[in-house]
User: Fold this.
Amino acid sequence: MEVRDYRCCMCPQMDVNENICPAGPGKSRETKCDFVVVWMDQRGWKYKVMGDLAGTFKGRYQDDKHSGTFCWHGMRQMERRERFDQAQEDLNRYAKSKGWHPVEN
Assistant:
C-alpha cells in the first residue's frame, strides 16, 4: 500500500480520524484511506495520531506488549498540532523516513 503524505484535496473527511474513504461522485464504493494509517516498526510497536484533552493532535506509540486502547504514549519527536491532518502528515513523513510499514486491518 502506497501511503500519501497529504490527504486528497477533494476528501470529504478533512481533519477526521477515519480510515475509510467513502463512495461519492466519481467513486462507486468505499475504499481504504491511503492517508490515515496506523504504522508499525520492526519491533512490532504501533504508531498513530490521537487527540488529547486540549483539542490538539500528536503521534503516539504503543509497544508490542499491549493492544487496544491501553498504553498509548506521546512521541517526543512529534509536535502538537491544531489539526488532525497536520499531525498525520508529520507521522507519515516520519514513518517513511524510518522504514516503517502501514498496518493492514
In short: The longest strand covers residues 46-51. Residues 15 and 84 are 5 Å apart (CA to CA). Residues 37-102 form one domain. The first helix runs from residue 84 to 98.
